């Protein structure tokens, strides 16, 4: 029962589901409709779609042990790919003079993954946790209650990652630390 529940919670809390959902909600709350639509499409086409395809193909070919890329060594090439995608989209946002919320959150998202990449040489911090905590800081200005509920849900995500043996408790704690640090910096800079 615990294993089945952990799989469900981990899937619901997978960053490839929570990131697009949170970004779209945030953009349509912070930006005018046209700009929110354009930025949403850019993020989906330039980051989420290529990343999803790479993860899917990698897990099917055996390049990645699983879709979560839970193997520490396998994450290094994945980090390079996602950081490249994020660098491109962040530069586009700065060149096109997007709002502070769009530009700086893209930059902080990049920074979160860059820190996680360097930490990965020592410990595989939980991206399920750190990325979702970061997203919480995008949600809180929209709805404090929704942000608190989402933060509470991250405790369940953390539990699921440990039960599924994708992470140790220490790796989940590092995920919390990185997510909180970058989330606070982002929140203080953009709101």
Automatic annotation (TrEMBL):
Q: Does the keyword Transmembrane apply?
A: yes
Work out whether the entry's keyword set contains Calcium.
no
In terms of superkingdom, the source organism counts as: Bacteria
Question: Could you tell me the keywords of this UniProt record?
Answer: Membrane, Transmembrane, Transmembrane helix
**TM helices/strands, residue ranges:** 12-30, 36-56, 77-96, 102-123, 135-160, 172-190
SUPFAM superfamilies named in the record: Acid phosphatase/Vanadium-dependent haloperoxidase (SSF48317)
The coiled-coil segments of this chain are none
InterPro entries, per the entry:
PAP2/HPO_sf
From the Swiss-Prot or TrEMBL record, give the protein name.
Answer: Membrane-associated phospholipid phosphatase
